[in-house]
Every structure is written in C-alpha cells, then in structure tokens.
Design brief:
The complex is a heterodimer of chains A (231) and B (137).
Chain A: H1 2-18, E1 31-32, E2 38-43, H2 49-54, E3 60-61, E4 65-72, E5 83-86, E6 92-95, E7 98-101, E8 105-112, E9 118-127, E10 131-137, E11 143-146, E12 150-154, E13 158-167, E14 170-171, E15 179-186, E16 191-195, E17 202-206, E18 210-218, E19 221-230
Parallel strand pairs in A: 3-9, 12-19
Antiparallel strand pairs in A: 1-2, 2-4, 4-7, 5-8, 6-7, 8-9, 10-11, 10-13, 13-14, 13-17, 15-18, 16-17, 18-19
Chain B: H1 2-18, E1 28-33, E2 43-46, E3 53-58, E4 62-70, E5 84-87, E6 93-97, E7 107-112, E8 116-124, E9 127-136
Parallel strand pairs in B: 3-9
Antiparallel strand pairs in B: 1-4, 2-3, 4-7, 5-8, 6-7, 8-9
The chains are: A mainly beta (231), B mainly beta (137).
Chain lengths: 231, 137
C-alpha cells in the first residue's frame, strides 16, 4: 500500500513540475486533433486527476460535462473563432464548447471555422461510472489522496473534498452534480458539508464530537464514508 | 524459321481477338484516407474494386479523406479542382469540407452519424464515382 500513497503524493508534485498554465500553476496536457492543426485541452474543473494527468485520454462519464478549449497549431497564424459539433448526437451533446455524455459509446467532435469548414476533429468516448471515489485536497487545492471508507477528523477541521468517477480502474473525465446525505449516528450535527464556489469542490467542516455516515450520490453511483469527529 | 512464323501468326491472331492496345487511361477518380480509425472502431476506404468501391465506418467515427483524380481530358489543371462529395442520405453520413489555405479544398471529413447505408458520389473534372458506404455500430 505504501507505493500507492507515494503515487498519490507524486501526482501533484509531478503536475507542479510540468508547470503548465492555469490559475493554480497546473493544467492538463493538450491532445492533438486528428489533422494536426489544433490542440484540444479539457477544462478539468475541480482538479479531476484523470483529466489533469491524462488530458483527453480517458472517456467522459455518462451524465458528466466537460468544457473543451481549442488552440490552433497553424504555423505563423492564430486562427478564427471555432465552434464544436458532435457527430453522434445519441452519444454526446455539444453546446457552447461543453460536451455532455448522453450514452455509452464514441463520437467524433468536429472543430469548425466560421465558414463551417473543418479545421480539425477529435474522437471522444463516453462510459458509465461504476465507482465513485472521494478525494481529499490540501489547503492549496492539490489532491492528496482518496478518502478511506471510515476515519476520524478533529473538531474544527475544514477539509476540501471532490469526487472522481471511475469505470473499473479507469478514471473518467467530466464535472457532475453531487448530492450529499449526512446521517448523524452520534452527537448533534457534528459535520456539515458546504459546496465550494469552485464547481466540484466541497468543504467538510467538523463542528463538534460525534459520528456521521456521509453518502455522496452522483452519476447513478453512491459512495459512503463513516467519520468520527474527535473533540 | 518455322518457329518465328508460328509466333508471328499467334501474335496476329491475339491482336485480332483482343484489339489494339489502348493509348489512354481510364479516368481516375478516387478518395483516399488521411486519418485512421480510433481504437476498436472501423474506418475503411476500399478502392480496389473499380465497380464496387466501399467505405465502412463505425457510427460516430470521422474520417479525413482527400481527392485524387486524373484523366487525359484534363491536363492543364488539377482534376480535383472544384471536387464535390455528396451523400444520398445525410442522416447516415455527414460530409464536411476541410479548411484549405488554397482556393479549393480537395479534402473532406466523412462522419458516420447513424447506422445505415448510403451512396457517396465523388465528382471531379474527370467524371464521377460512387462509393457504397456502410455505417455500423
């Protein structure tokens, strides 16, 4: 298990070393279009690790949404504004450069110029989430590891959490709505969960001693964690 | 001498039966692929049978293609100039031009939008050819 912890630690360090642009100094790697004229970068939102590490190298979760940024690779030129259109509307919906997974499958995404000529295109898969993992972030927002199914926190702790969707061992792309349920087992409202102003982040606030069962519900999957708040 | 006369006679008979060799070429009107299929999917373009050219795509796949055309009648300009590629059933196959820095794009993206079959017609200055196109799951 030690190597797994090391990998979790290495992810944010590796990302920092990459030094890609972004508000936090990190960002996902771009993926080249099939015609080699553009690079397409996913907007990873709440530091979704599958997105940050692999870029567009994973499927989009069914029901999740992913913004795509397009940069030209035309020598000596920038380029005109582009619009994105999905090839297979049964699988994806594309609205204002945001792709939403509708059904399992695959679809091309055309990158069109104002004359509706194709500048480039990519292919994107959509897969069902089969598992949710709760990820803890440090105070700077960097992911530090997956939260265990049970554990303890101290009263006064404030912890940033996010959820990652997986299909088997593969992390899925996309942002999605999450509903948290808090079942108090001991104490009086020992924990509160507040949605952060960053989409996909949640602040777990340990108020006082007690025990709770937290259930995150998203993409048709549930993840339950039991926490004890120590005084 | 007898052998030589025999060969000449045989050649004459063959020439009579098959006709004079053609001086020209059949018009060449083809699409050829610029890109490949994504993993686990199909994107095949087959020009090997002149009478039955085929394109096979998985639904959702986009395939970049380019025009090639040549004929004796068109020698002073590119025979692909102004090429058009059309699908009989655009609900099965979507055809888009690829942006070109030149005046005319000879390149297109064919995208399988739904399962089905359709004919794709390529028309150049040399004439036209059809591709039987199948979009599968």
């Amino acid at each position: 298990m030690r190597w797994i912890r090391l990998v979790w630690l290495m992810v944010p360090l590796g990302l920092l070393a990459c030094g890609d642009a972004g508000d936090l100094g990190i960002g996902p790697p771009p993926s080249g279009g099939s015609l080699g004229r553009t690079s397409v970068t996913p907007e990873c939102g709440a530091l979704n690790q599958a997105c940050l590490v692999g870029g567009l190298d994973a499927p989009l979760a069914r029901g999740a949404s992913l913004g795509l940024g397009v940069d030209y690779r035309l020598a000596g030129n920038s380029g005109p504004p582009t619009t994105l259109e999905g090839v297979n509307p049964a699988v994806i919906d594309v609205t204002d450069a945001v792709v939403t997974g509708r059904a399992q499958g695959m679809s091309g995404i055309l990158i069109l110029d104002p004359n509706r000529q194709v500048v480039d295109f990519i292919h994107l898969w959509v897969a069902d989430a089969t598992e949710l993992r709760v990820i803890r972030h440090n105070d700077d927002g960097l992911p530090v590891g997956a939260v265990r199914s049970s554990g303890t926190v101290l009263a006064g702790d404030e912890i940033i959490l996010s959820l990652e969707a997986f299909n088997g061992t593969q992390g899925l792309l996309g942002l999605f709505e999450t509903v948290w349920q808090i079942e108090v087992l001991e104490g009086e409202e020992p924990i509160a969960i507040v949605e952060d102003i960053v989409f996909g982040w949640f602040r777990l606030i340990a108020r006082g001693p007690g025990k709770v069962r937290l259930t995150a519900d998203a993409l048709g999957q549930q993840k339950t964690i039991e926490l004890e708040v120590l005084p | 001498m007898k052998t030589t006369h025999g060969l000449l006679a045989l050649a004459t008979i063959l020439l009579f039966l098959t006709g004079c060799p053609s001086e020209g070429y059949d018009p060449q009107i083809s699409l050829y692929p610029l890109t490949g299929a994504p993993p686990t999917k199909v994107a095949q373009l087959d020009n090997s049978h002149e009478t039955l050219r085929t394109i096979n795509l998985s639904a959702g796949v986009s395939l970049g293609v380019s025009c090639y055309s040549y004929c004796e009648e068109v020698t002073t300009t590119d025979a692909c100039e102004g090429v058009t590629v059309t699908a009989d059933h655009d609900e099965v196959l979507r055809v888009d031009e690829i942006y070109s820095a030149g005046a005319s794009s000879h390149r297109f993206v064919l995208s399988g939008t739904a399962v089905g079959t359709t004919n794709v017609t390529v028309t150049t200055l040399c004439g036209s050819r059809k591709y039987l196109t199948t979009v599968s799951e």
